[in-house]
Amino acid sequence: MAALATAAGALPAHADSSRASFTVTASARTLVAPAADGDGGFSDLLVSFAADDGSSALAGVKVAVDGRQLARLAELRLPAPCTFTDAEHLQALCAPGDFAGGGGHLTLGVRAARGAPAGAAGTILFTVTATNATVNRASGRDVTEVRVGEGPQLSVAQLPVLTRTKPGATATLATGLTNQGDREAHGVLLWFRIPERYAPAAAFGDFGNCRYPDRAAGLVLCRFDDAVVRPGEVLRPSVLVALVAGDDPRDGRFEYGADLAGGPTDRGLTAAQGAGRPGTGAPLTLTAGPAGAFGSEAAFTYLETGRPYALSAVAGDVVGVQGATVPATFALRNDGDAPAAVHGGRTADGDPAGLLVSFPTGVRIAGAPADCAERPAEPTVYLCAQTRTLASGEFQAYTFQVLLADPLDRAPGRASVEGQALAGAALFTVTSGAAPAPTTVRSHTAAPGPALRAVAPAAEETGPEPSAPPAIAVTAAAPVPSPTSQASLGAGLAETGGGTSGLSLAATGGLAVGLGLGLIGMAARRHWAGSRG
């Protein structure tokens, strides 16, 4: 029984028993500079594909590119594994092949066609397939908007998808910006988001025109109020961005971007940062730099440390009657072989490190654990803080009271580790059906074992046989406290999978509950599989 439950739990909730699932993520938007004075440079079109369990290999990957909406607006440039399939060179087929370690990415180029008017926009569609996996259509994005810059349009140099570092090492990142619009940009804001357990190197950490967070990680804002960026001009900071990894770094995501001074990003980030700490040194300046891959107002790279611990999410399917409230337990688990410490418990965004749980539409939260806080998102998303050091194999569990407000049939949800993108994510489903018709129990109902504690009371007898003993009620237990061993968590998630307040034991099926219905235990991986766009 335990082996069957483990085997079932290794699969994504919406996949069949023989095929893994993967998520496709394309950049939401790419800017291209007008090409009125000849051919402009190419911007990046990035599409990534990553196994939902973070580690399954993807075989025979193919990417069909459909850019027919870009006719007379843009031109495409293909990498080596791609060939055009039409005379207009707007459709292509790419066959990058096999990807071990969870997935990969593909980068195409796009530039404005001659005569394309500023402000014009179209979309490009990516259709990704694999011979051994199915696409998860409940998440990700497969369409990118391509827009010709109109007015001043700042975009930044793209970064490598992955930057490897190690404790105490310094990672140097080549940043820069350009104006892909058709008018001059007056006044520039450059922002940098430093991940937790990293700090700006001394050469980058004390400029008079920058404001820094009160702690090492967080948001750095640098202003160039007198800067003028002409269309097509490329500028680079006078000092390279350098990040120093601490003694106990985790994999993190460094981000940076540009905005016009006083623009919406400037206003939003200034309000988010608060006062900050002003630098005391000479100002950072912008100098002319070489052309590069531009195309978006922001860019990022994943910093991989190779540390021997890895956090992963654990989740189980939720099943019950529409209108009922059922318990649902999720957990944050350390799958590595070294302790995962809290270290102040804050990420670069100012949020506690921990577990993100995204519930599908149609679910309401009647009760949340004390360590979990709702985020402003649609559908419902909670961030559950990691509040203690987790030893190897140890976990911290969180039990929600979930109101099944709408009828749902395996509606997908996701539990993931804050700051880890797809690595260590776990999928779950929520199903709520109509209440079953009353049944007559004409046999003895056995007392429940540990795996049946969350099953609702069995239906009462309406006419027992004279020889039958009285039925024994099965009572729903209160949510279990946060367990600390794999065995106790398995029981807790078995309860989550079988929690069916108002549903009879006969309708639920004791076998399904005993197996821990839909237990998902996905191993985290240490290699980042692709961009989240």
TrEMBL record:
Highest taxon of source: Bacteria
Keyword entries, A-Z: Membrane, Transmembrane, Transmembrane helix
Keyword Transmembrane: yes
Transmembrane portions of the chain: 503-524
Protein name: Gram-positive cocci surface proteins LPxTG domain-containing protein
Organism: Kitasatospora herbaricolor
